[in-house]
Design goal:
328 residues; 3-stranded antiparallel sheet; Endonuclease I-creI; alpha+beta; 49% helix; 7 strands
Length: 328
């Protein structure tokens, strides 16, 4: 692109003002139009005080008008013209406040499962406590590497949005009802470090919550070499000390001996680690996590690893009777 010197004529200043503020042209667009480098354009804009103001606080009446217009699929430009503001302010406001077009509404079509006595509700609470994010304006995000599993979650919760991402799937849920419930349970935008161990009305639902935690932030590790079991460990990690202490207390109250540790990640962040490292407690964990009528709510990969472990345990005569009883 050749160099060009911009004159300071009033005519050119007004042209820039109109293109940049009213027509929403980018610096790149102006570079092409005037055969200048970005630095030249930016200096000219700064010199003549031509800058965009991104703070836009519409009245409640205008907010309703913007929302309705977005649902009617009107362009930002046509909305801006009626409100007598630059179109970039409308675009900025819409993006900042997460007002989606209807086909991207990400709503829950049937939220009847969001109640204290529902099995799915407590399993989803566990998933969101580990792999969820509480956003602003009623938005909740859920992340999961297993794309086939995230599709199942969508079906279970009656979510009508799209799945974003390739290596990690993401769904955005727009629900004022669920958002409010999560805040009541102790969720926040910083929930990774602050979320408590959420207490369910009964032990059955509590284990569904723990299954959700395990499917999100848990793992089952073991090696079986030449008939010898090595490194057996069921574990859950959390950045929240409150969550870890609550889970530790609950597992012990259920007669499951576990170990609690405070650790540092490779980048220096503190996290908490709970582990169960012996056969009988892990077998009991299996029966409590999965031996109920809500067995469909699970991450198949982790459930399958438990089944593999039980098959290997059958080779050990000490636990044959226990395993057989659980598998009936």
């Amino acid at each position: 692109m050749g160099k060009s010197i911009l004159n300071d004529s009033q005519e050119l200043i007004e042209e820039f003002r109109k293109d940049f503020l009213e027509n929403n042209c980018s610096v790149k667009d102006l570079c092409v139009k005037h055969s200048c480098s970005p630095a030249v354009i930016q200096r000219f804009l700064k010199k003549h005080g031509i800058k965009r103001v991104y703070k836009y606080n519409p009245s409640s009446e205008d907010i309703l008008f913007i929302k309705n217009s977005i649902e009617e699929k009107r362009t930002y430009k046509s909305i801006a013209e009626e409100l007598n503001v630059p179109s970039y302010l409308i675009s900025s406001y819409v993006n900042r406040n997460i007002i989606r077009k209807k086909k991207w509404s990400n709503e829950i079509e049937d939220d009847s499962w969001i109640n204290e006595n529902n099995s799915l509700y407590w399993y989803v609470l566990g998933l969101l406590a580990s792999d969820g994010h509480l956003g602003r304006f009623n938005e909740i995000s859920f992340f999961q590497k297993d794309l086939s599993f995230i599709k199942k979650v969508q079906k279970w919760i009656h979510h009508n949005g799209v799945i974003y991402g390739k290596s990690i799937g993401v769904i955005h849920i727009n629900s004022a009802f669920l958002h409010t419930k999560l805040i009541e349970k102790g969720f926040s935008s910083d929930k990774r470090y602050t979320i408590p161990f959420i207490k369910a009305p009964n032990s059955y639902l509590q284990w569904l919550f723990i299954r959700g935690l395990f499917d999100g932030d848990g793992s089952l590790y073991f090696k079986y070499i030449s008939g010898v079991m090595e490194g057996l460990s069921w574990q859950i990690c959390s950045g929240s000390e409150n969550m870890t202490n609550g889970l530790y207390s609950f597992l012990n109250s259920e007669g499951i001996k576990c170990h609690k540790e405070k650790r540092k990640s490779s980048v220096g962040n503190t996290y908490y680690h709970i582990a169960v490292r012996s056969k009988e407690p892990i077998i009991k964990l299996f029966s409590l996590l999965y031996n109920n009528e809500s067995i469909e709510y699970k991450l198949p990969k982790k459930y399958g690893k438990f089944l593999k472990l039980l098959e290997l345990f059958k080779l050990n005569k000490q636990v044959d009777d226990i395993v057989d009883a659980l598998r009936k």
